[in-house]
Design goal:
single chain; 5 helices; elongated; 174 residues; mainly alpha
Length: 174
């Protein structure tokens, strides 16, 4: 074991080093600021730094689009959502039917997943249904929050179904 170098203390953490492949440049450690702001970011300005990140938000890349491009992508998202709802809803109904008729846990799982896909597509449909709100951070946040709650509830339902099947000693059939 090596002895610590002069000035080092035992248990101190070494400074991290970023290694870049040859021929590449390292990205700046913090997002670039506008030239109008001219100030450097200091460690004591953490609140200002987080506000700047919030202003950029989830929609930074979408605000770079031209208005006609954003509307084109919005229409494509609506078409894909509608197609997904129709196809996946048909699959969910068929899988639930098979699940009930054959007492199939795997069919139930597939049907439950298909139902989640339908709900996700409905949320995307709602998110992009308003042409004026394509860049709406509020709608984006609400859509993400609703999706998160739906997936948490679905995991709870799956756990309850599994506990029920274990408690009633329902054995899977081959």
């Amino acid at each position: 074991m090596e002895a610590p170098a002069a000035g080092d203390e035992l248990g101190s953490t070494p400074e991290p080093t970023i290694v870049q492949p040859a021929g590449t440049t390292a990205p700046p450690p913090y997002p670039a600021r506008d030239s109008q702001q001219g100030e450097q970011l200091h460690l004591g300005e953490s609140a200002q730094f987080s506000e700047e990140l919030e202003d950029r938000g989830l929609l930074e890349s979408s605000t770079r689009l031209k208005p006609h491009e954003a509307q084109s992508y919005r229409k494509k998202a609506l078409w894909v959502s509608w197609a997904s709802i129709i196809v996946t809803l048909a699959l969910a109904v068929a899988a639930f039917t098979v699940s009930v008729m054959r007492y199939s846990a795997s069919s139930f799982g597939f049907a439950f997943d298909a139902t989640l896909d339908v709900l996700s597509s409905v949320i995307v449909l709602w998110r992009y249904s308003n042409a004026a709100a394509v860049h709406s951070a509020q709608r984006e946040y609400l859509a993400c929050a609703i999706l998160g709650v739906i997936f948490l509830l679905s995991s709870l339902c799956i756990v309850i179904k599994a506990i029920h099947d274990l408690a009633t000693k329902l054995l899977p059939e081959v």
